[in-house]
Amino acid sequence: MNMQTSLSQEWYKFRHQPGPLLGLLVLLGLMLIMALSAPVTQSAVVMGFGTPQWLLMIIVIIGANFFIMEDQHTTIRTLLYRHTYRWSIYLAKLLILSLYTGVLVLLSLLFTGLLKIVFAPQLSWQDGQLFSHLLVGMAGTFLVAILLLTIILWLACLFPINTVVIGLGLILVLTGQGIASLTIDANPMLTAILKWQPLNMLNLMAQLPDSSYQKDTHLSNVQLLVGAIGYSGFFLAIGYWRFKHKRV
Amino acid sequence: MLKMTNIDIWIRHRQIINAVSFDVQPGAIVGLIGPNGAGKTTIMKTILGLIPFSGAVTIDNQSVTETNHAGLKSVGALIEHPALYPFLTGYQNLALYTQDEANLQAIVTQLEMTPYINRKAKGYSLGMKQKLGIALALLNHPQLVILDEPMNGLDIDATILVRQIIQQYAQQGTAFLVASHILSELEKVVTDVIIINNGQVRLNQPIATFNQVTAQRYRLQTTDMVQTQALLTDQQIPFEQDAGYLNIAQAALYMVQTLCFNQQIQFKALIPEQVSFEQRIVQLLHEKDGDEHAN
């Protein structure tokens, strides 16, 4: 079976699950709650009403479920023997999840615009480059989400248990940036090395629209971008290596 | 069709499969028989390229390895449990892998799954799931079908139906490798028998040859049972009494015949003791185990 068949099969499974639609509704619902719970400021709009945080959590849950379901339902055997090469399965799953991430980012961008129009019509898109900062922040969120997906898929190959992978993924989302800052601050002599740790790359989505984060990350935007893309490639490679040698 | 040559499998420094070789010809229905842990499922997984091995597996002269499944294009399999997505309907589970819509419909009809094929698989009974698993294995006109315990959870009607379908596909040239603990069912359908134990092939022969087993014991009735018993006792020929018959070993048969003839005693009945397929398998496994322990 070729890549096209793998993609169409993975898409078929993905769109027939209730999780992805539910994930989208939860994301939009949480953004709405954020808009309703406090006065809408420029910063709230730039951050897409909490999009980065909610989106990453949803991606962790959907991504882990989509990958581990094959082990849970023992469909992994059929999947493996019916495909000529294992890489096509792994890549197809990652591409479908990336596409879903892209759709979530796009819809949350549109919904942010709608919420701003409804709850903060006095704010102008031009004020403090509101629109461009929002766009750049969403692009950063997308890249961080892809990095997180490669980590989740790797973890799913190591521990094919939903709760473990989702738990580890949520810990990364909730504490990753904090741990990165703490380790860098606690070891000033090692800053040159520690600033390149993968957890520090999670700051990309915050730093792109707000350069003040650079004092915490010790990396420029370009360096963070290169780091995030590089680590995505690294986790994709070690995740696939583990999947290739998976015993079923 | 399928050729396995000198397959060895080691898992965690333990040899699971030891020098296994056999062929499966087109149209053959090969029964893979053995106790739990004998290595049946491992052999099936090996054919599907799911575990690393040394030796060679070829299907239609195409090599199958753990990393190259090109030779498995026309292979269908049901290993251990039906592999189904519970959030998909039965039809959608099949549609996921089908290359021929008409073939899918034909299989659904053949397996009598039409009434529930559009229901989500999570609501299926064990038997329904099993049928769907078999349907998945039969999709896309496979040349080789591997079935591990296909009769699990099936009722009598479904068991007969599946047996008929297997025979029908085999007549059209599809080869089957079937593992089952329900030996009475297996006996009705197989053309060849492979017995495996402790990861080794103990016996591999056509069912016709396998069934040509000379009876080991005979039940005898004569015109004078009292005198016959006395003769056997005098000659120290072992026998048992069983519901009006004398039960004797096949090796003693000609001697008993001569003794009776000399005493003008006629045979009224001489019945070979039938050994069932099941008994024969058990006997063979025990014999081979005995040989192994003796060595």
Automatic annotation (TrEMBL), chain A:
| Membrane-crossing residue ranges in chain numbering | 21-40, 52-69, 90-114, 134-157, 164-184, 222-243
Keywords (alphabetical) are:
Membrane, Transmembrane, Transmembrane helix
| Protein origin, superkingdom | Bacteria
Question: Can the keyword DNA damage be found in this entry's annotation?
Answer: no
Task: Give this protein's Gene Ontology molecular function annotations.
Answer: ABC-type transporter activity
Q: Which GO terms describe its cellular component?
A: plasma membrane
**Does this UniProt record's set of keywords contain Cell inner membrane?**
no
Q: Name one Pfam family in it.
A: ABC2_membrane_4
Instruction: Give the matching PANTHER family.
Output: INTEGRAL MEMBRANE PROTEIN-RELATED, MEMBRANE PROTEIN
- Name it: ABC transporter permease
